[in-house]
Design goal:
The complex is a heterodimer of chains A (about 150) and B (about 120). Chain A has about 150 residues and is of the alpha+beta class. Chain A has a single domain, classed as Histidine kinase-like ATPase, C-terminal domain (Heat Shock Protein 90, 2-Layer Sandwich). Chain A is built from three helices and five strands, in the order βααββαββ. In chain A, β2 and β3 form a beta hairpin. The longest helix of chain A is centred in the middle third of the chain and has 25 residues. The radius of gyration of chain A is 14 Å and the shape is globular. Helices cover about 40% and strands about 30% of the residues of chain B. Chain B starts with a strand and ends with a helix. The longest helix of chain B has 15 residues. Chain B has a single domain, classed as Transcription Regulator spoIIAA (2-Layer Sandwich), CATH 3.30.750. Chain B has a five-stranded mixed β-sheet with strand order 1-2-3-4-5, with helices on both faces. In chain B, α1 packs parallel to α2. Chain B has about 120 residues and is an alpha/beta fold. Classes of the chains: A alpha+beta (about 150), B alpha/beta (about 120). The interface between A and B is medium-sized, with 23 and 18 residues.
């Protein structure tokens, strides 16, 4: 699987669901960080992954709450060809607008203040990020990080 | 709770010493501590993040809110931070320009009571 290919149909290395409540975001980021560590990501990279997962999970918790959804937040991670792909699924409203592509091209100008901090953070931490409508309602945030030493 | 928040009175300033992780669950504790200190009349606040293991955008939002809160009253807020993982978050978001960040608590205390013009 190349970095840009869909993970649809792949068996995840990590598949967790947690109640859409703030106290569970910590467990989500530490779990994905543990997987990254298992795959020999260095300490700095583990910190970046932890933060990106925390931002996406925090966003998902808020989205479910906003939509009044009782569904859990779902996090899946895949490791392949030296990359870690993390997908965070919510059942909140559709994204403000679908975005995909290189992180630096995502415009944050119209976002509310806290989101306007979260998006540049994710953008500064991962190699690729995409935010798409999820079939059945909600949003998928997909982040790709290279686990190799040669990071951009 | 995964964040300890301790307030210490120093000459001319209040120090908030943090230990643990600042995220969407724990950031309200920091927000409340800043609100309480300002309500008690504190104008100058030092937030010591030397023992902070994790900080995200929710924590940043609370710090920005705190900075605005003291600035509107003629006060100041400075930070103590030396860990790369914490400094990096301020760099990425550009908030390193909004906050005076010091490497020691002593320097942050000097900076908060006598901010550079």
């Amino acid at each position: 699987m190349s970095r840009s290919e869909s993970t649809a149909g792949s068996v995840p290395d990590l598949d967790i669901e947690f109640p859409a409540k703030p106290q569970y975001v910590r467990a989500a980021r530490h779990t994905v960080a543990a997987l990254a560590r298992m795959r020999e990501a260095d300490d700095d990279l583990v910190e970046d992954i932890k933060l990106a997962v925390s931002e996406a999970s925090t966003r998902a918790v808020a989205a479910n709450e906003q939509a009044g959804s009782k569904d859990p937040v779902k996090v899946q991670a895949f490791v392949s060809d030296g990359s870690l792909v993390v997908e965070v699924f919510d059942r909140g409203p559709d994204p403000e607008r679908p975005v995909s592509g290189p992180p630096e091209e995502i415009d944050t100008g119209e976002l509310p203040f806290e989101r306007a901090l979260a998006v540049p953070l994710i953008r500064g931490l991962v190699d690729e990020v995409a935010m798409e409508s999820r079939p059945g309602g909600g949003t998928t945030v997909r982040m790709v990080v290279s686990l190799s030493a040669e990071r951009p | 709770m995964d964040l300890d928040v301790e307030a210490i009175r120093e000459d001319g300033a209040s120090v908030i010493a943090l230990r643990g992780e600042i995220d969407v669950y724990t950031a309200p504790l920091l927000r409340q501590k800043i609100v309480d200190l300002v309500d008690e009349g504190a104008l100058n606040i030092v937030v010591d993040m030397e023992k902070v293991d994790f900080l995200d955008s929710t924590g940043l939002g609370v710090l920005v809110e705190g900075l605005k809160r003291v600035k509107t009253r003629g006060g100041n807020l400075t930070l103590v931070a030396t860990q790369d993982k914490i400094l990096k978050i301020f760099d990425i978001t550009g908030l390193n320009k909004a906050f005076p960040i010091f490497s020691t608590r002593d320097d942050a205390l000097k900076g908060v009571v006598a901010p550079e013009a």
